[in-house]
């Protein structure tokens, strides 16, 4: 129970407490934690001696705080919980609550490297059927390792940032043409944010997942399917992805997701030793995709074939180092049903089956002015539900 | 003519003046410029009021200096030239010369995003013939756009850093196995370093190349061919590349390469408007690859099909922003002859034709303990030659 008005019973109660970076109309960006419809100014709390975090909370990103490591993450979370639940602290803490409407949310962390995986079997199968009809939907390597690639860290933007329609080359029967993408799509994903780095040349075992990963964001990995289809052989996606990747303003700490870990789908064939995670756990995050406000899909993250711990072990098996701020995303989250897919490519089956909206409108891919919002909930303690921060973006015309 | 002993007539004379970051046994990293066999301590020069650069030269990377832009780059270069050529400055400047042997070179810039292109027609054709015999060596998109992908910025290391042999999965007739790579290779490349950023959503025209790009490094994009071959479908190279990418400690400013620009190979079919660079210029950089000291190849950068200005225009045509410290590499530099290739994959034709060394030894791919050094020269003013900083690395056993 918290003394903060309206927070108890909300999906942003004291069992949640995601971290973000905010600023007011005047003032520098600083770390805050969300409680109900308020942001607790953690930088102010640290200045006042209410929280100890080595000065990391007055910074314009979460990176310094994330670099402190799990014992410190846990200690700060415990202390914040104490401040927000013990009425004795109310007088000191209440002046540090900023109404959400007055907080301008910033990109919560400086992205070091951004890796995008491809870990939903349903998504990979759907894409295979759409692009390679009549062939096996999964490529031979897919069940042996979590396929992934590096994306552009510099174009990761915070939720709410407008997305300029990308231009580029696409193939036509008359040859390639250059212009604004005509098959602009989303990818609903879950991203994992690394706090604690690892040395070059070493591996990070799957078991060390929670020592390195600070928390979770929602991700919309905007994708220009026409640009991607023409450019991607043989070195993979490039400009079809690199124009923008949106992340939620709130980073949900792993500590808030204790009740969300669930057994992951069984893996057959058995995986390589370095990919064995015991217990083999996924996360029961229930995503929802809204297209211009209409709920068009509900991707279930619990169906992902590869787990975040396996992805981390794979990412580093070759000795690649981790840095604070590394972001790795799950890949598009798609469940087995049409109403559970995480891309419009799948929802409209390659653009052949338009989505019909309640107002009579239809869509295959994104039009200028369209807004897409991805939300998610997770099981909290005692049958409650917590919310992940939403990721939203509006498409604006190509320049 | 410089008053610095031994510098005139050397490939590091006053027409060169590459930038780097160094430290002495004690003391913090700081910016320096190479002249002959010395490093001029530019941070010291700025502190003494001999050079003006907004305080950017006392920093541990070149990033702040590179962010200042071309007018400042040119002004500092002119001033440094003055200091090193006018004997009137000798008394003040000579104490700031550090013998190269006492300077520990650091990674010269903090890498923002790292992009690797694939712009040598000879390399792409060779790889096509080796991996897809009997099929057209170039894929249909190759002559329409500079193929590229994002690599791992966090594992870019400075020349001299040992390279730990990567482990990972590779395919065998009995199925995938995990272990140290058995086909470890190099890629001799040239990298371009961005100084001046660009806004998200905008394009950078090819003509603006010199406003954004600060200078050039040599790159060894170490590659585990067996890991890459198994993982790369459909999203491109990942762990086969991400374990290490070495760059030279010295960044040669574009201003030093004025005599090295030469007409690039003609392009047929004609390229899209946004890829037209007028004049269409490549760089006459003459690379040399030494394997355990023996010169095994001399890749000619002037043969590259796509120019660095075209690569920059392509990289941003979708509105992707540039950041200070972005590095984009050319892709493996291979000329038309076997003795001009930039990878051992090509030199040994997929491992089927071992290299024979003078001492009787042979190699297909890299063994533990092997050292590879890539050097390059370029035409300087008045028939002289300047050198680019070498990039070297020794392979050490997998952990």
From TrEMBL, chains A, B:
Binding site for Mg(2+): 221, 241, 245
Top-level taxonomy: Bacteria, Bacillati, Actinomycetota, Actinomycetes, Micromonosporales
EC number, UniProt record: 3.7.1.2
UniProt entry keywords in alphabetical sequence: Calcium, Hydrolase, Magnesium, Metal-binding, Phenylalanine catabolism, Tyrosine catabolism
Domain (Fumarylacetoacetase N-terminal) ranges: 15-108
Statement: the UniProt record of this protein carries the keyword Ribosomal protein: no
Name of the featured protein: fumarylacetoacetase
EC main group: hydrolase
Domain Fumarylacetoacetase-like C-terminal: 116-386
GO MF annotations, alphabetized: fumarylacetoacetase activity; metal ion binding
Segments forming a coiled coil: none
Cofactor: Mg(2+); Ca(2+)
Gene3D superfamilies: Fumarylacetoacetase, N-terminal domain (2.30.30.230), Fumarylacetoacetase-like, C-terminal domain (3.90.850.10)
Residues annotated to bind substrate: 118, 132, 228, 232, 332
GO BP of this protein: homogentisate catabolic process; L-phenylalanine catabolic process; L-tyrosine catabolic process
Annotated InterPro entries: Fumarylacetoacetase, Fumarylacetoacetase-like_C, Fumarylacetoacetase_C_sf, Fumarylacetoacetase_N, Fumarylacetoacetase_N_sf
Binding sites annotated in the UniProt record for Ca(2+): 116, 187, 189, 221
Native source species: Micromonospora echinofusca
Pathway given in the UniProt record: Amino-acid degradation; L-phenylalanine degradation; acetoacetate and fumarate from L-phenylalanine: step 6/6
Top-level division of the source organism's lineage: Bacteria
Keyword Transferase belongs to the record: no
Residues annotated as catalytic: 123 (proton acceptor)
């Amino acid at each position: 129970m918290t003394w903060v008005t309206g927070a108890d019973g909300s999906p942003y109660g004291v069992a949640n407490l995601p971290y973000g970076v905010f600023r007011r109309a005047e003032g520098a960006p600083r770390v805050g934690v969300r409680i109900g419809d308020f942001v607790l100014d953690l930088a102010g709390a640290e200045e006042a001696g209410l929280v100890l975090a080595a000065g990391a909370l007055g910074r314009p990103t979460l990176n310094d705080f994330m670099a402190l490591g799990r014992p410190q993450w846990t200690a700060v979370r415990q202390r914040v919980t104490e401040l927000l639940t013990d009425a004795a602290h109310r007088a000191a803490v209440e002046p540090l609550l900023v109404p959400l409407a007055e907080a301008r949310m910033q990109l919560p962390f400086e992205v070091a490297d951004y890796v995008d995986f491809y870990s939903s079997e349903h998504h990979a199968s759907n894409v295979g059927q759409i692009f390679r009809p009549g062939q096996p939907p999964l490529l031979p390597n897919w069940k042996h390792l979590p396929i992934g690639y590096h994306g552009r860290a510099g174009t990761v933007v915070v939720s709410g940032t407008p997305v300029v329609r990308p231009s580029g080359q696409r193939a036509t029967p008359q040859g390639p043409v250059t212009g604004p993408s005509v098959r602009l799509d989303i990818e609903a994903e879950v991203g994992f944010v690394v706090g604690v780095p690892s040395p070059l040349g070493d591996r990070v075992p799957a078991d060390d997942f929670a020592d390195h990963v600070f928390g979770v964001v929602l991700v919309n990995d905007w994708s220009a399917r026409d640009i991607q289809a023409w450019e991607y052989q043989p070195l993979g996606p490039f400009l079809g992805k690199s124009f923008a990747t949106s992340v939620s303003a709130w980073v949900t700490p792993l500590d808030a997701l204790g009740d969300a870990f669930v057994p992951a789908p069984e893996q057959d064939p058995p995986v390589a030793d370095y990919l064995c995670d015991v217990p083999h756990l996924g996360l029961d995050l229930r995503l929802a995709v809204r297209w211009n406000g209409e709920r068009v899909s509900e991707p279930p993250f619990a169906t992902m074939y590869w787990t975040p711990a396996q992805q981390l072990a794979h990412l580093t098996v070759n000795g690649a180092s981790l840095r604070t701020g590394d972001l790795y995303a799950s890949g598009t989250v798609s469940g087995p049903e049409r109403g559970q897919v995480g891309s419009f490519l799948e929802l409209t089956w390659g653009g052949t089956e338009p989505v019909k909206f309640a107002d009579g409108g239809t869509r295959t891919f994104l039009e200028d002015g369209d807004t897409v919002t991805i939300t998610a909930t997770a099981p909290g303690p005692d049958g409650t539900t917590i919310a992940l921060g939403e990721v939203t973006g509006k498409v604006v015309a190509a320049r």
